[in-house]
Amino acid sequence: MKAEAPALWWYDDRFYYSIVDIIAALGVSQKPPRQYWAQLKEQVRDEGFVEAKSRIVQIRLKAADGRLRKTDCADQETLLRLIQSIPSPRAEPIKQWLVKTGSEKIDEMALQRRPEAEFERMVQSYIERGYEPEWAWIRTQGDLVRNELTDEWADRGATAGREFGILTNIMHKGAFGLSVQDHQTFKTIPPRENLRDHLTLAEHGVSIFTETIGISLHRKYETQGFAGLQSDAREAGEAGRKAREIAEGTLGEPVVSPENYLHLKRVRGDQKRSKKSLPQEPTLFNDDEEEKTQGK
């Protein structure tokens, strides 16, 4: 069977490949590739694998859903060492593919796929929607942290949708003193709106801090399972609450604000009547399943 080409990137004067894409192409497990790779890194003690693992780098790659995520990547030599430690009848075609792509002249295409270029495009997309550049930058930073957090949840056994919504709400309520749903109500924005599109800079700061602490706790405790993730989420929410209270003492006013950006929606609505609308940005904070859990 012909292996599907994994994500390829030019970094540090050589090509790097997305390891989870390679795992998917090898077809070694019924588990999601990211989950299989997370477990493999912890379980395999082969000397060659351990040495190769130390040479892995993390690059922000654009996923199929359009989001930027930190992704474990390896150059050709490192990948071959890793593949030798993974039992799969599809390993040989992957090795041949690596040799072939390594000899092809595709430098120009790879050089155009800079991680910082993807970040800049995301920032620009918010600016084009009417947001200030400073807001657009911190919003994009928040997107990256959120993506990394949900990847941690998925790798550690949580299910996207309902369980992601519960974990989100635990952290959010702990940090802000309001559930996501109540926060939306306070800002007088419709339920289907993405709350993150209406957070102020200070609110974004608390949110990013809280979720970053959540990521750190998951890694510190090597948490596995939904119950453990909930415990970490509560601890992260408490850290976020303390950070918010310090910020409020410095600002002399509440961080939670009734301010929203619905006026930008109205402006864009006027523009849509005169020209074709742009595709809607993917929601990173609320989905149908999350909304069902936010009031719980």
Strand order of the largest sheet: 1-2-4-3
Domain count: the total is 2
- What fraction strand? 5-15%
Question: What is the overall number of helices?
Answer: 14
Query: What's the overall geometry?
Result: globular
Global structural class:
alpha+beta
Give the secondary structure arrangement, pairings included.
Elements lengths: L7 E4 L2 E5 H8 L6 H11 L3 H7 L3 E6 L5 E7 L1 H9 L6 H13 L3 H5 L3 H14 L4 H23 L6 H15 L3 H7 L14 H21 L4 H26 L10 H11 L15 H6 L3
Antiparallel strand pairs: 1-2, 2-4, 3-4
Task: Describe, in plain words, how this protein is organized in 3D.
The chain has helices spanning 19-26, 33-43, 47-53, 76-84, 91-103, 107-111, 115-128, 133-155, 162-176, 180-186, 201-221, 226-251, 262-272, 288-293, and strands at 8-11, 14-18, 57-62, 68-74. With 296 residues, it is α+β, with helices and mostly antiparallel strands. The chain has two domains: 8-111, no CATH class; 115-293, no CATH class. A four-stranded antiparallel beta sheet has the order 1-2-4-3. Strand 1 (8-11) and strand 2 (14-18) form a beta hairpin. Helix 9 crosses helix 11. Mean pLDDT is 81; it is low at 105-113 and 269-296.
What brief labels describe this structure?
disordered C terminus, four-stranded antiparallel beta sheet, alpha+beta, globular, 2 domains, 296 residues, 14 helices
Short description:
With 296 residues, this protein is α+β, with helices and mostly antiparallel strands. It has helices at 19-26, 33-43, 47-53, 76-84, 91-103, 107-111, 115-128, 133-155, 162-176, 180-186, 201-221, 226-251, 262-272, 288-293, and strands at residues 8-11, 14-18, 57-62, 68-74.
